[in-house]
Amino acid sequence: MSTKHEKILRYIESLPVGDKISVRQIAKEMSVSEGTAYRAIKEAENRRLVSSIERVGTIRIEKKKKENIERLTFAEIVNIIDGQVIGGKNGLHKTLTKFVIGAMQLNDMMRYTEAGSLLIVGNRFKAHENALHAGAAVLITGGFDTTDENKALADALSLPIITTSYDTFTVATMINRAIYDQLIKKDILFIEDIYVPISETKVLRNTQTLADFQHENERTTHGAFPVVTAKNKLVGMITVKDIIGRPDDEAIEKVMTKNPISGSMKMSVASAGHQMIWEGIDLLPVVDDDNVLQGVISRQDVLKALQLAQRQPQQGETIDDIVKNEVKVLNNEEELQVEFKVTPQMTNQFGAISYGAFTTLLAEAGTFALKRRKRGDAVAENMTIYFIKPVQMESILTVKPVILDMSRKFVKMDFEVYHDTILVGKAMMTFQLLER
């Protein structure tokens, strides 16, 4: 049976794109408290089903697929630039295809302005009018207004006119940064991207016995199962180890692990993998805010996802990507050496290599050393930097990782970092090995 939270989310998802919703309206429509309605609307906002805008309200927007996440809605633009909608509020749910900066003559400006675009311009009323007729929204910079006729036209065409106090250059930079951030988010894998839904997952009820577990274990060869109530609330996990020496007629709830570790849909795959290794579990249940089971992920699922992510082209570069692009493995059969160039993006306010870039460099060098020993994927567990000198930008560094100790699950590694022949850094790092 669905919870009130799930019913509200399904109701919101069923609303037409562009509809306005409110806490009071949802509470009345679904016969729930305003607190429950508020929490559900916040969850809908996290799932990108609605967008809340100051002075306008909360609007149902089209949920974007991951491959199109870099495309922003006009509602999101309002939030990014702290703008005010002065016309065409009914069109805020629409997605913009591109933005055009109106720093040219009117006729030339219109050559670039088309349906679905956003014209960024100052107090040029004729440009506002022409853009609306072309099917484009308008963003007025400098805090200027437009004519009442243009506002009426925007309302009639459901094309937003937005005004902001920022100048054109600042606005373009803010929107560009938002699109860039979305590109980075698109490359991050979440549990929702790889989980096996509950409809395809075998679960056991807390009222069943160990004989039921034995039967399902023989049928599926799975060594672990989530334990749920009649309403699919997660109450435990049971594995083969739990039933050793127990009679078949004993209740599952007496031997299961209660309050098991679980993940959420928005948890990153990297975090889930690290938690599974640290806790020594092979199956992670996935639950919603009400602890209702949504599905599961296995350690095998995590490994496949991480390996696939490493082969994907990166469109939005993080500092980790920038560091990795500058790493080069030197051909040396006796010992592994990694060469690295310090670029301006990797420096702190003093012009020396930042602590974050330095630690990323060491982690990457350690990964190369493990791959050379054919030990596969690993997760950095801890790092101790006990010597570091300021290294200026444009410097070429050489990193020498040395494996001190290696077991089936852990690797301890020492690092020496040189600039020419001068020692500029020493560190020790422990990795956890990702095993199938």
TrEMBL record:
It holds the Pfam family CBS. Residues 256-314 form the CBS domain. Keywords: CBS domain. It comes from the Bacteria. PANTHER family: CBS DOMAIN-CONTAINING PROTEIN, CBS DOMAIN-CONTAINING PROTEIN CBSX3, MITOCHONDRIAL. This is Thioesterase. It comes from Lysinibacillus alkalisoli. The lineage of its organism: Bacteria, Bacillati, Bacillota, Bacilli, Bacillales.
